[in-house]
Specification:
It is a single chain. The protein is α/β, with parallel strands linked by helices. It is 37% helix and 28% strand. It has eleven helices and 18 strands. Helix 4 runs parallel beside helix 5. It starts with a strand and ends with a strand. The mean pLDDT is 97. Bound molecules: nicotinamide-adenine-dinucleotide.
Length: 355
């Protein structure tokens, strides 16, 4: 059985822990341990998931005989943790972005090749059924050649202001939000990005002492002339009806696809929370026959895909065959990071950047 540990048990690491503990109940993995710098996170999560805890991930890698780790540390803290894990022979699933530098991604990919471990990047937008249906339509040619398109992904201001004001200044709407859709659109189009021109504004968050961009708009030219505009921001008002607002449209020679990934048709208004829309596609809580909370959705599926892939490889499958499928490999993580890095280079220089 695959023995697995998690590094980083914060907001998104919780999803990793939930997914892996569910897979443990199904007898597919052994969720052994969590490493997190924060003593309070360690205390809460190790109790909740009944696992061992380590403040130092290197100690966990030494003590536990793990086959794999999943990494959900902040964006800027992926590189060293990933390298340590890979160099100790662990297969690795790492949250997007693979790293916030092109060199960091290249180093991680090289280390994975040298140590013959499997490296996957968690881009969960690829697992959204509406996104997958768009990918299928484009792959089968139903939309013809895509000429242009438009993406928006916007978070409520609570995310950079209250969730992680400490590391938001080391991130941006391009790094935190943009990479999701840079990767998704590249995967749907099966075309490489060539040029980027970006503009952005620093005003609201800087005024609150969080020194990062409020919003970034990037126009990306892909192979064959396809042009996609990515609008990203994380300053939507506290009163907005969901934490995230997101969607896209693609216009091709033969058709158009439009996806509203935010408002999926369910809305509530409660005294406690006010008006809210619900994306049950990402995460839906159910109960199993024993009364355990069980979560389904593409937020779970994308992490479980790592375990599917490890099982596939253990049965003799070739990881190279996963390229171009729903699984994002190291090269896909690198491509998304190249795009985000080019967005920032364009922001700083005011120029069109060749990728
Ligand atoms: N929050 C989201 O909605 C979301 C969605 C998709 C992906 N992600 C990605 O998941 C990753 C984690 O984001 P988050 O929102 O969970 O952040 P977070 O700040 O809530 O959690 C990060 C955790 O990592 C721990 N940590 C930091 N450095 C560490 C180290 N060296 N070793 C061990 N633990 C360490 C912190 O103590 C913290 O508990 C990021 O890469 C982010 O981009 C987040």
């Amino acid at each position: 059985m695959i023995k697995i540990g998690v590094i980083g048990g914060g907001k998104f690491g919780t999803n990793h822990l939930i997914t892996l503990s569910q897979l443990e109940r199904q007898g597919r993995v052994k969720l052994a341990a969590l490493a997190d710098l924060s003593p309070s996170i360690l205390e809460t999560q190790t109790k909740k998931f009944n696992i061992k805890g380590y403040q130092d991930h290197r100690e966990m890698l030494r003590q536990e005989e793990l086959d794999a780790v999943t990494i959900a540390t902040p964006d800027f803290a992926h590189r060293q943790v990933a390298l340590d894990s890979i160099r100790s022979g662990k297969n690795v699933l790492i949250e997007k972005p693979l790293d916030i530098t092109v060199e960091g991604c290249q180093e991680i990919i090289k280390a994975a090749e040298e140590n013959k471990v499997f490296l996957e990047v968690d881009f969960h937008k690829r697992y959204d059924p509406y996104h997958q249906e768009t990918e299928r339509l484009v792959r089968e040619g139903a939309l013809g050649e895509i000429q242009y398109g438009y993406v928006h992904m916007e978070d409520k201001i609570v995310v950079p202001r209250d969730w992680f004001p400490g590391w938001a200044p080391r991130s941006s709407p391009a790094w935190f939000l943009g990479v999701h859709f840079y990767d998704l659109i590249r995967w749907i189009l099966k075309k490489e990005p060539k040029t980027v021109f970006a503009t952005g504004i620093k005003r609201v968050l800087a005024g609150l002492g969080v020194d990062t961009y409020d919003s970034i708009q990037a126009k990306v030219g892909f192979e064959g002339g396809t042009s996609i505009t990515f609008d990203t921001s994380w300053i939507l008002p506290d009163g907005f009806e969901a934490v995230v607002n997101q969607g896209f449209r693609l216009v091709g020679d033969k058709g158009v696809a439009e996806v509203d990934s935010q408002d999926r048709g369910m809305r509530t208004c409660l005294n406690q929370t006010g008006m809210q829309t619900h994306n049950l596609g990402f995460l839906q809580e159910k109960r199993d026959k024993w009364g355990n909370a069980t979560f389904v959705g593409y937020g779970i599926e994308s992490i479980a895909d790592f375990v599917d892939n490890l099982e596939f490889i253990n049965k003799g499958g070739d990881a190279k065959n996963l390229s171009g499928t729903v699984t994002a490999l190291g090269a896909d993580g690198l491509a998304a990071t190249r795009m985000a890095a080019a967005v920032h280079e364009s922001l700083e220089s005011g120029k069109i950047i060749n990728i």
